[in-house]
């Protein structure tokens, strides 16, 4: 398939032209080193977020995919030495605020190859209990 036709198929369940392609806003969450910045760069199709270093504060990236404006917010990961009580919640709320009026999607990024220990499972549960009254 050519690129234009491929985008049309991704954007519409029919072969009819898509007249309006609204913006999509995504919030990336996950542990430190999970690959949130890399996932954001892959979604946007370009190097917007710095990889290979710890993300210290939420940052926003914009792009266009198949004619649709995409906004992605990369957030700091949990489980870092800099993490303090409440920091994850503050950064998650800050990240969501960067996507005003709010995210369409919250994407949980997990490493593909990882052992899900009871400790990691509990940390995941604790971090996903964010108050979502963003």
Automatic annotation (TrEMBL):
Query: According to the lineage, what is the superkingdom?
Result: Eukaryota
Q: Which InterPro entries match?
A: G_AIG1, GIMA/IAN/Toc, P-loop_NTPase
Q: Does the keyword Repressor apply?
A: no
Q: Which UniProt keywords apply?
A: GTP-binding, Nucleotide-binding
The record's GO molecular-function terms, alphabetically, read: GTP binding
Q: Which residues form the AIG1-type G domain?
A: 21-134
Q: Which PANTHER family match?
A: GTPASE IMAP FAMILY MEMBER 4 ISOFORM X1, GTPASE, IMAP FAMILY MEMBER-RELATED
Question: What's the family?
Answer: Belongs to the TRAFAC class TrmE-Era-EngA-EngB-Septin-like GTPase superfamily. AIG1/Toc34/Toc159-like paraseptin GTPase family. IAN subfamily.
Q: What name appears for this protein in its UniProt entry?
A: AIG1-type G domain-containing protein
Q: What is the lineage of its organism?
A: Eukaryota, Metazoa, Chordata, Craniata, Vertebrata
């Amino acid at each position: 398939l050519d690129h234009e036709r491929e985008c049309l198929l991704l954007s519409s369940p029919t072969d009819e032209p898509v007249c309006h392609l609204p913006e999509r806003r995504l919030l990336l969450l996950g542990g430190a080193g999970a690959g949130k910045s890399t996932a954001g760069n892959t979604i946007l199709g370009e190097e917007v977020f710095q990889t290979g270093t710890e993300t210290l504060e939420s940052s926003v990236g914009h792009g266009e995919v198949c004619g649709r404006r995409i906004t992605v917010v990369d957030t700091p990961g949990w489980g870092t030495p800099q993490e303090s009580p409440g920091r994850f919640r503050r950064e998650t709320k800050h990240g969501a605020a960067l996507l005003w009026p709010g995210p369409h999607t919250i994407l949980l990024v997990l490493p593909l190859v990882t052992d899900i220990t009871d400790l990691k499972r509990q940390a995941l549960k604790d971090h996903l209990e964010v108050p979502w009254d963003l």
